[in-house]
Write a structure and sequence with these properties.
The protein is an alpha/beta fold. It has five domains: 4-98, Rossmann fold; 104-234, Rossmann fold (3-Layer(aba) Sandwich), CATH 3.40.50; 260-370 and 469-489, 3-Layer(aba) Sandwich (D-Maltodextrin-Binding Protein, domain 2), CATH 3.40.190; 375-455, D-Maltodextrin-Binding Protein, domain 2, CATH 3.40.190; 492-570, Porphobilinogen deaminase, C-terminal domain (Double Stranded RNA Binding Domain). The protein contains 18 helices and 23 strands. The strands form five sheets. Strands 10-12-11-13-20-14 form a six-stranded mixed sheet, sandwiched between helices. A five-stranded mixed sheet has the order 6-5-7-9-8. It has a five-stranded mixed sheet with strand order 17-16-18-15-19, sandwiched between helices. Helix 5 links the parallel strand 5 (127-133) and strand 6. Helix 4 packs across helix 5 (144-156) and helix 5 (144-156) packs parallel to helix 9. The longest helix is centred in the first third of the chain and has 17 residues, at 104-120. It is globular, with a radius of gyration of 25 Å. The protein starts with a strand and ends with a helix.
Length: 571
């Protein structure tokens, strides 16, 4: 007998309504067919994770964690408890990602936010979204699903911003109103069931009432409208997500091994040019956000894309400054190699991560509409740059950022901070650094704008050339893929980044100064470029306007050229 079973695995609760949500979803999934048996299991409740396999007859069992994150319960407790069953060794067992990590969830919540905006008459441009997750120090990944979903909501909703908050970690629920002082707020509990957290804990911490409420609830706080919505799990579309995960559809991070420099992908593996374009990306939260952003744009024009995760040297080697790595593009080399080997069809990069000189056989087929280009300070205690004490340690591995910091505050110390954007934020939050300078675009895309203590004006902190821009790279001989990418290209972003990168190339071989550049405008552009000595003592700015990007860069380079003589005299 080769029977199949679907098991919905939930944490469990003494709250009857929360358990009812899980059981209702299981019943609806069973009605849709595809499995001989459908069951539920609980960490706290009956049947338990350890006992559920003994209560079903199936030999092929798919377990869908009815949980929000890939944290302690889904990645530690659930596999451990299932393994205690005597039948765990005789059934073919597959555990999917939790429901809270499925990419469709951003669309589900975006639709719900639109309903709330209309229901309560809120203006999207003056409304912040606050996503409240559990968070826990017991597992480092427990908060990531909340942060990642907040980043996707920032892209898929019409609202002013979307940020992550937590019941058990900072920033806590109370910080929601402090961070949205001039906006209305929609608060969505990123929880499976309402329970006491959704109906009592969160509203009390927001100052709603002293007793339980029935969301969606509306209150006026400091002249702002605050909407507290129902918990995630109560949305009727959760059943669709459960079934999609059980069938292996749209899984965001398939569980498979990943070796050094190896690719990991969702979907079938086929040689040659597949019917779906294989999109290579790094595996960090920000890189995955970028890849999904590009994939969504392809989907909108009718092009199917599968995402292939790739481990790069820059991701693996985090104990040395980027400049000390034996390559000029540690976050791009492996992706470019896979492109040239035809193991992927295109790759998405933060444009500033690419080498100054393009690799033979590859080209940039699209530069997407640009995100924020500014730099921001994330600091312990949300202290602004001017208020950091003398000798405070600011984390950055960028010589450009370090040089401009020294020009503004020569009394500060800079030390290399490595890791993904979200991890660098956590290092500052943990007190390992007094502050760090990060690209605003990355914080925004991950839903971490609430972490910003200060956003620097361009005149004070000129960004890296191509900062905030996403580049899609293809093989030069792949006309089919290049043609598809061309439909995503933003001419204004391409012209601006062309001018900025031309300035960078002119100074590429100098190791005594750092270069920054930012161009704005469409037909006639203005370019602000800066060359600054590494100690921050000498810097020169160029501000020029032209219609032609090449001519624009030439004029800026000419104005910055005299900094060479000044640096040599100083030496």
């Amino acid at each position: 007998m080769n029977r199949t079973a679907l098991v919905l695995a939930a944490h469990g609760s003494r709250n009857a309504s929360a358990d009812a949500i899980v059981r209702r979803c299981a019943a609806e999934a069973g009605a849709l067919g595809g499995f001989d048996e459908v069951a539920v299991a609980y960490h706290q409740g009956e049947p338990s994770f350890a006992a559920v396999l003994d209560q079903i007859e199936a030999t092929r069992v798919t377990v869908v964690p009815f949980m929000t994150s890939r944290g302690y319960y889904s990645e530690v407790v659930l596999p451990r408890e299932l393994a205690r069953s005597p039948r765990s060794h005789v059934v073919r067992l597959r555990i999917t990602d939790p429901i809270g990590t499925h990419p469709t969830l951003a669309e589900v919540l975006a639709d719900r936010i639109d309903v709330l905006l209309r229901q309560f008459g809120l203006c999207p441009a003056r409304t912040d979204v606050a996503l409240v997750g559990h968070g826990t120090a017991r597992h480092p990944r427990s908060r990531l699903a909340t942060e990642e979903l907040a980043g996707r909501l920032a892209e898929t909703t019409r609202c002013k911003s979307s940020s992550a908050f937590f019941l058990d970690e900072d920033p806590g629920v109370e910080a929601i109103l402090d961070r949205s002082t001039d906006s209305d707020v929609i608060v969505i509990p990123f929880l499976v069931g309402g329970g006491s957290h959704g109906s009592r804990d969160i509203p009390v911490r927001l100052g709603f009432v002293d007793g339980a409420i029935a969301p969606p609830e509306c209150a006026i706080k400091g002249g702002r409208t605050v909407i507290l919505d129902r918990a995630l799990g109560s949305d009727p579309r959760m059943t669709e997500i459960v079934v999609a995960l059980a069938r292996g559809e749209g899984c965001s991070r398939p569980r498979a091994g990943r070796g050094q420099g190896a690719a990991r992908k969702t979907g079938d593996s086929r040689s040659g040019h597949a019917s779906r374009l294989r999109l290579g990306t790094r595996g960090s939260l920000l890189a995955l956000w970028q890849a999904r952003h590009v994939a969504a744009r392809f989907l909108a024009i009718g092009v199917d894309v599968e995402i292939v995760e790739v481990s790069t040297m820059g991701d693996r080697v985090v104990d040395r400054p980027i400049e000390a790595l034996p390559t000029s593009a540690p976050f791009a080399d492996e992706l470019e190699r896979l492109l040239l080997d035809r193991r992927i069809d295109l790759a998405v990069h933060s444009y500033k991560d690419l080498a100054v000189q393009s690799k033979a056989g590859l080209e940039i087929a699209a530069v997407l509409p640009r995100g924020s280009v500014s730099e921001s300070l994330v600091s312990f205690g949300s202290i602004r740059l001017a208020d950091l004490p003398p000798g405070a340690v600011v984390g950055t591995c960028s010589s450009r950022r370090a040089a401009q910091l020294r020009a503004i505050r020569p009394d500060l110390r800079t030390e290399c901070i490595r890791g993904p954007v979200d991890d660098r934020v956590r290092q500052v939050r943990a007190g390992k650094f007094d502050a760090a300078v990060l690209a605003t675009a990355g914080l925004e895309r991950l839903g971490l704008l609430h972490e910003i203590a200060e956003q620097f004006p361009i005149s004070q902190f000129v960004p890296a050339p191509a900062q905030g821009a996403l580049a899609v790279q293809v093989r030069s001989d792949d006309e089919r893929t290049a043609a598809a990418c061309a439909r995503l290209d933003d001419p204004a972003a391409r012209r601006a980044t062309d001018a900025e990168l031309a300035v960078l190339r002119a100074f590429d071989r100098r190791d005594d100064c750092a270069v920054a550049a930012y161009a704005t405008g469409s037909d006639r552009m203005t370019l602000h470029a800066r060359a600054v000595s590494l100690d921050g003592r000498i810097f020169r700015d160029a501000l020029v306007s032209e219609c032609d990007p090449a001519r624009l860069a030439e004029r800026a380079i000419a104005q910055l050229a005299n900094v060479h003589a000044e640096l040599e005299v100083a030496v």
